[in-house]
Amino acid sequence: MAKLGNPQETIQVLQKHDFHFRKKFGQNFLIDPHVLDKIVDAAEVTEDDFVLEIGPGIGTMTQYLCERAKKVLAVEIDDKLIPILQETLSAYDNVEVIHGDILKQDIQAIADQHNDGKPIKVVANLPYYITTPIIMQLLESRVPLANVTVMVQKEVAERMQAKPGTKEYGALSLAVQYYANPYLAANVPPNCFMPRPNVGSAVIRLDCLKKNPIEVKDEKLMFRLIRASFNQRRKTLQNGICNSGELNFSKEEVARALEALGLPAAIRGEKLGLEEFARLSDELMRG
Predict the structure, then answer these.
(1) Which segments of 120-200 are extended strands (E)?
(2) 134 near 107, Cβ under 8 Å?
(3) What phi and psi values does residue 199 have, to the nearest 5 degrees?
């Protein structure tokens, strides 16, 4: 099988199998070898690594991963792509393809079975509509992960690494940075895909942290406070928390907590970093 990664080969494979892109899966296949190399380089894949690939498509990036990794497990949701993958990956003996939804896979069991429970690397060219749920499920699952290297919408990559006080900063920035250090590896223009998406893309690597950067008594409460403060960005932090259906703190309680932390009553959530949100959460718990 010829190496995929250029438009001619991709078109040939799609025509041979009479494959039609399915909108519901948000499919955009990579057709640029330079970008494929950049992704595999960014993921720092070596011959000692077990790689979980999410959404292999027709196997373009899978081929690149197979040439570098010890073993690749590719999870593909579209049943129409399974026979294509069996053909395009037939030359590699270190790959296994599973037909399924990554959100329903037991990643811990995959790590245990294929990598003796050691940290695995995840590589993915994700449909943009489901990027955040997949990334957050991976990070929150506490599965041993070395890094997660994903192609995402450029705007989402910028949000993941944004700092307090910037326009891009929000709940996603805090959630990702609680579990990982984000590193923007490459910007990818629309013409590197087939079909062309309407937005620019970026490759971002999340280096998973062995230990969370801050300590907080109640993680769930902290993230509820974070969501409440960004759900209504234009409101003060105090109003955002008091208007949240997820929380039941009075204005007085929130005012007292902010005062105890030396924060102004009119402060907005976008000014706070992880540490301040953790301290606010602990202070509100103390009542």
Answers:
(1) 120-125, 145-153, 180-188, 193-194
(2) no
(3) -130, 160
Torsion of CA 33, 39, 45, 50, to 10 degrees: -100
What does DSSP assign to residue 250?
-
Question: Minimal CA–CA distance to 70: which of 93, 40, 97, 47?
Answer: 47
Position 143: which residue type? V
Predicted pLDDT at 27 = 86
- Model's pTM, two decimal places? 0.93
Torsional class of 129: left (φ above 0), alpha (ψ -120 to 50), beta (otherwise): alpha
Q: How far is CA 188 from CA 25, 44, 125, in A?
A: 20, 19, 12
Query: What's the rounded Cα separation, in Å, for the pair 8 and 264?
Result: 60
Dihedral sign, CA of 150, 134, 200, 76? positive
Partners of 181 in the β-ladder: 207
| Six-digit token string for 32 | 């640029």
Question: Phi and psi dihedrals of 121, rounded to 5?
Answer: -110, 140
195 preceded by cis ω (within 30°)?
yes
User: Rounded to the nearest 10 degrees, what angle do helices 219-231 and 171-179 cross at?
Assistant: 150
Q: Which two tokens stand for residue 100?
A: 């399924």
**Could you read off the pLDDT of 151-204 as tens digits, one per residue?**
999 999 999 999 999 999 999 999 999 999 999 999 999 999 998 989 999 999
Here the tokens at position 204 are: 């971002």
pLDDT in tens, 125-147: 888 888 899 999 999 998 999 99
